[in-house]
Design goal:
Helix 11 crosses helix 14. By secondary structure, the protein is mainly alpha-helical. The longest helix has 27 residues. The chain has a domain of 169 residues: Up-down Bundle (Na+/H+ antiporter like fold), CATH 1.20.1530.10.
Length: 351
Amino acid sequence: MLVPAIIYTLLNAGTAAAGGWGIPMATDIAFSLAIIYALGDRVPLAAKVFLTTLAIVDDLGAVVVIALFYTSEISLVNIAVGLAFLGVMFGANKMGVKNVTFYGILGICGVWTAFLMSGIHATIAAVLAAFVIPSDARLPEAEYLKRAARHLRRFADLKPNGVSTLEEEQVKVISNMMNDTRDAIPPSQRLEHAMHPFVSFVVMPVFALSNAGISFAGLDIQSVFSTNIASGVALGLLLGKPLGIVLSVMLLVRLGIARHTEALTMRRIIGLGFLASIGFTMSMFISTLAFTDGNMLMQAKLGIFAASILGGITGYVLLGTDGHDKHCRQAKTEDGAATGNNGGDNQLNHV
């Protein structure tokens, strides 16, 4: 996150565009993961987990940046109210409350509304609320398995009535099984599962379309390069992201905090870095907060658009044409064939 911001700042320091340093910091989770999963088995699971974690951390960092640096006026009273609701949710979590409706009402009507009115961008409220929603189930897995088996045996023992409707006892058994199934799913996952269709098919498309706003009609090339906004954003994403990720990995390995694995070769890390340069929706959103001037905003969006396309293509090529797995599979095949031949020779010699 820091390297893209530094590159942008170096190109725009001391100008009216200096406030856009936060634009190239974000990673678009949806687009970057869509590309890496489109590669299928050509990319190992470790690389997919690495990119997912990286994108989540980047977006959380972007949310913090929005809250701290792209907020005009802050109401301490409303922040205190929001934190109070968070405290109630945290206390309820520790007391074992698992009711999803309870956390949903307090999270939206309490925390989100208070932070929205405080002047801090409301996205920070969602992040904070997610930390206090229980991630453990009311019914442990082992107990759920026992109850499910008991319910199934009970249902099997009931004689079918030969009609399309169920007997009252059958309905009771199924209802009990449904209740136990609900209790076996952690509240945080239940909320995520319930909100996923709405977020994926309504919120995300609306968010992307409302923040894109790119029109090439009447575009003046000279105006695009009248400042370093477009180049700062594009280089921050396209150069800063891969460079920052590679340097961070090397530093963590050198310090002994992380270690190299066979699945994460340097080529793959660089490829993942280019996929992380897809800023698109989140970067577009930050640009609308950073600039009010239409010309400056358009330059920032063009930089995001160009870097996201080039980064996606470059990352796809680097990851999709990595011959590491192919060589490994070929070596294993040759080893297996050699072992088989040796085994056959040994059998012949034995005979």
